[in-house]
Design a protein that fits this description.
- The chain is of the alpha+beta class and 379 residues long.
- The protein has 13 helices and 15 strands.
- The strands form six sheets. Strands 2-3-1-4 form a four-stranded mixed β-sheet. It has a three-stranded antiparallel β-sheet with strand order 10-11-12.
- Helix 6 (162-170) packs antiparallel against helix 8 (183-202), helix 11 crosses helix 12 (316-327) and helix 11 crosses helix 13.
- The longest helix has 20 residues, at 110-129.
- It is globular.
- The N and C termini lie far apart (49 Å).
């Protein structure tokens, strides 16, 4: 797959900073790396002041994540992030420690760093279990634990667990049914579930406030992003197109202007699951690779059409047939990737044909003493 960032023009610093009492943080980090069998692969150094810098060794970073590409980490290390939770943790930690400079990962304590790894693992695991019915207009939730109000959105009924309610809404193994979602709203539920599961382990008082928030009013869209997420990478300082950490939320843009008029096909919100896979909420047994996701989005242009009323629609059967043809021809795959595997254009611009976003999103801090989540309706 073609890289669109020239390594000679883009310098990567492989580091993840944790700020706290240096010696205590160092001892805790080294013990944790020992437990995961990674101590010889990671460099832990004291920086100025009270800062501890933790990074993959340059040799390991070059071999395991060349040019910041983390999509082959699990394969190269023989990890099984699907079947072994400890391997998902290993991959998540290593991908964070291979972070390019633009990420600027910074944690006020070793405990907050562990929480960041833990919440990402919860999100990736929840996203892998999620399957929904795609709908950009209608929405439904399990009636035994959710209620809808136009002003408050979908809220949790009194006495119902937020964690269980989110699982029932998104995981058919729990509910036995597929519920209607847009892909963006679905990502909010998966993130909220991952945060709630992590808070149950490390910060129950904040989980209680989160529960009361969703009994009072749902936090959605822009406010959800502002309250719960941080974004790293930017159009003027982009992430490498192959840099992903399990639990990342990201957007693949539809670079074809006509087909982007189909509701729900402006782009695709997904999670990186680890092991080179991205979530597929509509067919969870067919998760995407970076290649298959790019090829699918490229072929949306061939499935788009106007119906008798002049409204834009998408024929998924055409997209699937085109994908099969392309994926069976390595030369055609390379041609498609040369066109779309590049950084996306700014909003409103359709010029270069790229679908890769410059940024990723992950949850804010969660530990009792250092969380920066401020809920709008609950003190």
């Amino acid at each position: 797959m073609a890289q669109t960032l020239n390594p000679s023009n883009h310098t990567f610093d492989f580091h993840c900073r944790g700020v706290g009492v240096p010696q205590a943080a160092r001892n805790s980090m080294l013990a944790h790396l020992d437990a995961l069998g990674l101590r010889d692969d990671v460099r832990v150094t004291d920086a100025s002041g009270a800062q501890l810098v933790v990074a993959l060794s340059e040799e390991r970073a070059a071999a395991w994540a060349p040019f910041g590409d983390t999509t082959s980490l699990a394969r190269k290390l023989g990890l099984d992030p699907i079947g072994k939770p400890e391997d998902l943790e290993r991959e998540t930690l290593l991908a964070m420690l291979a972070a390019p400079r633009v990420c600027g990962f910074n944690y006020p304590s070793f405990e907050e760093f562990l929480a960041a790894v833990r919440v990402r693992c919860h999100i990736a695991s929840a996203a892998r279990r999620t399957q929904l019915a795609f709908d950009t207009v209608e929405a439904e939730r399990p009636a035994d634990c959710w209620a809808y109000d136009e002003e408050r959105g979908f809220t949790i009924l009194p006495g119902k667990s937020l964690i269980t309610s989110l699982q029932k809404a998104t995981q058919p193994d729990v509910s036995g049914k597929l519920y209607s979602f847009s892909c963006y709203r679905a990502t909010e539920y998966v993130i909220l579930l991952g945060i709630a599961q992590t808070l149950a382990e490390i910060n129950p008082p904040l989980l209680d406030r989160l529960q009361r928030q969703w009994q009072a009013k749902a936090v959605m869209s822009g406010p959800f992003h502002d309250v719960f997420l941080v974004e790293f990478g930017a159009m003027n300082d982009p992430l490498p197109p192959g840099y992903y950490v399990p639990g990342d939320r990201l957007w693949f843009r539809n670079p074809d202007e006509p087909s982007s008029n189909v509701p729900g096909y402006e782009g695709s919100w997904v999670f990186y699951l680890g092991g080179g896979e991205f979530s597929n909420f509509w067919k969870r047994d067919q998760h995407y690779t970076l290649t298959t996701k790019c090829v699918e989005i490229y072929h949306w242009r061939h499935g788009a059409y106007r119906d008798a009323a002049g409204q834009w629609q998408m024929d998924e059967s055409v997209v699937e047939a085109r994908m099969r043809e392309t994926l069976a021809d390595p030369d055609e795959v390379e041609r498609v990737l040369q066109q779309v595997f590049r950084l996306r254009d700014p909003q409103g611009v359709y010029a270069e044909g790229g679908c890769i976003d410059s940024s990723r999103e992950c949850p804010r801090r969660l530990c009792p003493a250092t969380s920066d989540i401020v809920l709008p309706d609950v003190a």
